[in-house]
């Protein structure tokens, strides 16, 4: 259990104990999350580390190189510049961004995948996606793309479609997914990485999964809502064959409770809690980075969370009535139980409470 803390001491600790090391490690982590791979295997750096943007943005990549270029391999920088230049229009303009062949928007219950191998230019802040070309009088041309609608958040059908579109040989990967206590994971997700970059994922049911991959070598690990990730395994998809890989060591969710009150009066406060550091998921709908206290019980909130160490930012009217409080906390699973309750008591100091 963590005891009472005040915003002054926690704020100093969070900002001064390890500034350079923390900023560098966080920058490396974010840059790694930004990396994707184009169809020609070029390592690209997208604007965010959450997988929302399957393209390289000219302006955002320039900022990355300007402020964190020493943390990006020089070969990657050179390859990205060449990739951007390859999308240069006939009029000499460099595109806002260059796509990787397909993009996906997704949630737990749906996915929309646009396969657009023709697109080489996106302008007007991403509103228009097209291929720049010149037509002489009397000439015409056409381009073909595909909109794939998937009934859940499983992207494996998109991977299979792309393999068929490109005429790639494929193999099947299947297996089971269990927690460390031996119980099955009802709704597992298998994340596929290639050369250290997220390639896609497949959802499973009732502790089992099965999907198709282009022939090649991959790294696979299993995740699930509020669970810790499994160990990663190297897997090779072989044409016409079924490769089996099981996962055994996902840790069950912990549960964390917050009680938030006014530092002076002790009265419970409505508050917002953000996760600044801790376990994150490649598939964003699995985890929330922000929660709010209960509307029926002021100052109190409970949530399931993956086992691990976290840094929380807690604020009530933060930036207007008070400074946010940062607090470290751990939610570690004990050997003898399937769930650990962790109590965090936090007091917020108002600047000038009416």
Write the layout of secondary structure elements.
Elements: H1 7-16, H2 19-34, E1 35-37, E2 43-45, E3 55-57, H3 58-68, H4 74-85, E4 97-99, E5 102-107, E6 110-115, E7 121-123, E8 128-130, E9 146-150, H5 156-165, E10 170-179, E11 189-194, E12 197-203, E13 208-214, E14 216-223, E15 233-237, E16 242-244, E17 247-250, E18 254-262, E19 272-277, E20 290-292, E21 300-305, E22 308-315, E23 325-331, E24 341-348
Parallel strand pairs: 10-16, 10-17, 18-24
Antiparallel strand pairs: 1-2, 3-4, 5-6, 6-9, 7-8, 10-13, 11-12, 11-14, 14-15, 18-21, 19-20, 19-22, 22-23
Report what the structure shows:
With 354 residues, this protein is of the alpha+beta class. 17% of the residues lie in helices and 37% in strands. The chain has five helices and 24 strands. Strands 10, 13, 16 and 17 form a four-stranded mixed sheet that branches. Strands 12-11-14-15 form a four-stranded antiparallel sheet. A hairpin with a 4-residue loop joins β7 and β8 (128-130). The longest helix is centred in the N-terminal third of the chain and has 16 residues, at 19-34. It is globular, with a radius of gyration of 24 Å.
